[in-house]
Write a structure and sequence with these properties.
This protein is of the alpha+beta class and 368 residues long. The chain has a single domain, classed as Anthranilate synthase (4-Layer Sandwich). The protein has 8 helices and 19 strands. Strands 3, 4, 5, 10, 11, 12, 13, 14, 16 and 17 form a 10-stranded antiparallel sheet that branches. A 9-stranded antiparallel sheet has the order 6-2-1-8-9-18-19-7-15, sandwiched between helices. The chain is globular, with a radius of gyration of 21 Å. The two termini are 29 Å apart.
Length: 368
């Protein structure tokens, strides 16, 4: 069954037809969605059903993969060695000087132009002999608590990743989202002690999300901030939930994306700084992806006395979107790995460079 599942995806890739394979956090089922033609569908008002793939730049086009066929299989992850190395041959490269100068420029902009935070990133190019499917299985084995995916469209490209961050989930008229910021390398099993810089950065993201949703979400609930581990990294996470008084996905997504966790504050000014000063185009890195307007069916017994043991069906309309972090783009024998970090007035350029090195190992240990 599993072999048939992956063979179908390989056939689609060889035929240059769009598809996506993905597994949600802490689940064992892998879903495959297949489009029968190579047509490029674009989202306009987020009212259609399909799998969306959106760029960082919200002015760009959001791709909709049309679900012409859906298959599901079980995948039992293999045990992996949790030890991680630092790939010095990759991280000690010509990008270091540029990135350190970029971070300093970001700190200067915070002081001069009133930015509170800006997220700056870089792209690492490496050669790999592994197939996209081998890389995807390695992600599944290594990152059980992340959204792992392999996405392909012949007119866009081949991407895969393992992201720990939800942009939003809606279930009928209920919404859940999160703020995820702050990063520390795992040192043993204990959660780290967070400094003022990470705590401030996390609070900025939480406050922004709460403010952005106050007009469309009722009974807004904000959880306590907790430490969560994703691979060899720790993050700060705060959950936000509530009821949707006005169910307009386009409006909600526009309010949230790009979040301060991947862009900065104020959003407009931070985004302009990123587009002007980063030395590459992010494309779909720090965009979002996932299920749009899917139907979920639940069956329950309608007779408590079990006279006829009949069941009735409830149908939920759900959307599950994830921020495209910890990702890579594949082309021929090369992989482009994307990493970044949040810059505030407390940032130290050298330490910010080291943070991108630590983050890059999430994908580099899969590729190399």
């Amino acid at each position: 069954m599993q072999n048939d599942f992956f063979q179908k995806a390989k056939n689609h890739l060889n035929a240059s037809k769009p598809f996506v394979l993905y597994r949600k956090p802490l689940e064992t089922a892998i879903t495959g969605l297949f489009q029968s033609t190579d047509a490029l569908h674009v989202v306009t008002d987020f009212s259609k059903t399909g799998f969306v793939f959106a760029p960082f730049d919200s002015d760009g086009k959001t791709i909709l993969l049309q679900v012409d066929e859906k298959t599901v299989t079980e995948y039992i992850a293999k045990e992996v060695n949790s030890a991680t190395g630092i790939f010095k041959s990759i991280t000690e490269d010509q990008d270091q000087e540029f990135h350190i100068n970029l971070v300093q420029k970001g700190i200067d902009a915070i002081a001069q132009y009133g930015l509170r935070k800006v997220v700056l990133s870089r792209k690492i190019e490496v050669k790999t002999s592994k197939s996209a499917f081998a890389l995807f299985k390695t992600l599944l084995d290594n990152y059980s608590n992340a959204f792992c995916y392999l996405w392909y469209h012949p007119k866009v490209g081949l991407w895969l990743g393992a992201t720990p961050e939800i942009l939003l989930r809606t279930e009928n008229r209920q919404l859940k989202t999160m703020s995820l910021a702050g990063t520390k390398k795992a040192e043993g099993a204990q959660a780290p002690v967070w400094g003022a810089k990470e705590l401030e950065e996390q609070q900025m993201v939480t406050d922004y999300i709460a403010s952005s949703l106050k007009e469309t979400v009722s009974k807004l609930t904000i959880s306590e901030t907790e430490s969560v581990r994703a691979g060899n990294l720790w993050h700060l996470r705060t959950s936000v939930s509530g009821g949707l008084s006005n169910y307009n996905l386009k409006e909600i997504i526009a309010a949230l994306h790009p979040t301060p966790a991947v862009c900065g504050l104020p959003k407009k000014e931070a985004k302009a700084f990123i587009l002007e000063n980063e030395n590459y185009t992010r494309e779909f890195y720090t965009g979002f992806l996932g299920e749009l307007n899917f139907k979920e069916e639940n069956f329950r017994s309608s007779n408590r006395r079990n006279r006829e043991n009949q069941a009735y069906r409830t149908v939920k309309n759900t959307t599950s979107l994830y921020v495209n972090l910890r990702c890579m783009q594949l082309k021929d024998d090369k992989a482009w790995v994307y990493v970044g970090g949040g810059i505030t007035q407390e940032s130290d350029p050298e330490k910010e460079w080291e943070e991108t090195v630590a983050k890059s190992n999430t994908m580099l240990k899969v590729v190399l």
